[in-house]
Automatic annotation (TrEMBL):
This is Beta-lactamase family protein. It comes from Terrimonas ginsenosidimutans. It holds the Pfam family Beta-lactamase. Transmembrane segments: none annotated. Residues 1-22 form the signal peptide. It comes from the Bacteria. Residues 39-321 form the Beta-lactamase-related domain. The keyword Signal applies. Keywords: Signal.
Length: 467
């Protein structure tokens, strides 16, 4: 046989094998997502890129609560906190232009605020370490009213740079700084300096109810949410535009690697910063992960640049299984076994959370487990962990502790569940119990630097009380 013909046949054989493998992955992902949609845990758009090429794109469900309009790839979604990337990137662009410094004080840009504005640096706003209290945003009707409410705040929650507290107050002032320096509205600046240069022509900022091709968010009970928000500046995107934005970050089209690293590295492990979180090596992005939610919108960006892999998920009817389905997608891409998702038991539990104590919720959980184990998720630590945080966020610390500690019995090998219990005891001021649970978390997960720091802090507190 002609040696050139032989080489061509070998290359063709390799191509066919690779293509068959990709098609098999695509078919398995399609089956997984259709199963998820059938269960009612997927209503949205999904994009999967592998080796830099689109492997899968799908739209599932409806764009409205009445379920009359089918979703398409052209529909735009709000993406929650991921939209904060636009103001974070804009801040760093202005820093690169020499128009601000990360150690500049808030008072340099915004006048008329109390003296605490002299202690907050721009970097604190990017890392959510400003100490700014979170406004009751459901009572706010405009950016101007929000500013007046901030001017009435007497003191910060903590010394800037000393702690982490994720809230929209930091986002609000980033956007006001951008307006001050650029002498235009935040929305105009994003449109002209970020969206147009990256080719994001389908994106829209602060869409109105009449905006065409806008996916409207709605609850599991079919109640549709309003599109407008108390704070302005929220960019809604299509799958295609979302991917363009991710590629612009990965390729440093808008920011240098050094500036990008500032926005990827958080104040402390397991915390968020301007781009959510991720890792860089040799001035290249390795991973970039960010999730966001707003009302019943939910979105996830999961990038593994070392594999040329990007997973984008946007839903307008949020559910607790987005991360579980995403993990199954990754397992398929890696050629690993995966489990078909089930419905979230957390969604049943949270409906009872306001009327039952922690102990009663645990009993209810076990009653459900005895009858619904075939259809609902009981083998994931995340279900009770989410319930515990819901209780803790409402100030019900004893009930949260009951749920968290029970979860440690169900998942005794998970450092994460012990970390959550340690956090609840810490918030209650029970230093000894918090120390015990954080210590166990570090034993189970030696990479948990946040828990290590808490162990050191709590040992000092306990010794101080003893002496």
């Amino acid at each position: 046989m002609n040696r050139y013909l032989s080489s061509s046949l070998v290359l063709l054989s390799i191509f066919l094998c690779v293509n068959a493998g990709a098609q098999n992955k695509k078919a398995r992902i399609d089956s997984l997502l259709k199963h998820s949609a059938h269960l009612g845990i997927l209503n949205g758009n999904v994009l999967i890129v592998e080796q830099g090429k689109t492997l899968y794109q799908g739209s599932f469900g409806f764009a409205d609560a009445a379920r009359k309009v089918r979703l398409t790839p052209q529909h735009r979604f709000h993406i929650g906190s991921i939209a904060k990337e636009f103001n974070a990137v804009a801040i760093m662009m202005l820093e690169e232009q020499g128009r601000l410094s990360l150690d500049d004080k808030l008072s340099v840009f915004i006048s008329g605020l109390p003296r605490w504005a002299d202690s907050i640096e721009v970097i604190n706003l990017l890392q959510y370490t400003s100490g700014l209290p979170d406004l009751k945003w459901n009572t706010v009707t405009s950016d101007g009213q929000a500013m007046e409410m901030f001017r009435q705040i007497a003191k910060l929650d903590f010394v800037p740079g000393s702690q982490y507290a994720y809230n929209n107050s930091n986002t609000y002032f980033q956007r006001r700084i951008i307006e001050k320096l650029t002498k235009t509205s935040f929305n105009n600046y994003v449109k002209n300096a970020l969206l147009k240069p990256t080719g994001m022509y389908s994106s829209v900022i602060d869409p109105l109810e009449t905006e065409p091709l806008m996916a409207k968010s709605f609850s599991r009970e079919g109640v549709q949410d309003p599109l407008t928000y108390p704070q302005s500046g929220w960019t809604a995107v299509t799958l295609d535009d979302f991917y363009k934005w991710s590629q612009a970050i990965n390729s440093f089209r808008l920011l240098t690697p050094a500036s990008t690293q500032v926005l990827l590295i958080p104040f402390a492990p397991n915390k968020q910063t301007g781009l959510g979180g991720g890792a860089m090596k040799d001035r290249k992005i390795q991973t970039h992960v960010h999730d966001g939610s707003a009302r019943n919108y939910q979105a996830l960006l999961d990038v593994d640049a070392t594999k040329g892999r990007t997973i984008i998920w946007m839903t307008n009817s949020r559910n607790a299984q987005m991360f579980a389905v995403t993990e199954a997608i990754k397992q398929i891409l890696n050629g690993e076994p995966y489990k078909l998702p089930k419905k979230s038991v957390f969604e049943l539990m949270q409906k009872k959370a306001d009327s039952l104590s922690g102990a009663a919720l645990i009993k209810y959980y076990n009653d459900l487990k005895s009858t619904l184990a075939a259809d609902y998720t009981f083998d994931s630590e995340a279900e009770l962990n989410m319930l515990g945080y819901q209780l803790m966020n409402k100030g019900r610390l004893d009930d949260a502790i009951a749920v968290f500690t029970y979860n440690t019995k169900l998942f005794p090998s998970s450092g994460n569940v012990f970390d959550s219990a340690g956090e609840a005891f810490y918030n209650k001021g029970d230093w000894k119990q918090s120390f015990n649970y954080y210590t166990r978390s570090v034993i189970l997960d030696s990479t948990n630097q946040g828990a290590r720091e808490k162990v050191i802090e709590l040992r000092k507190k306990i010794n101080a009380n003893v002496h």
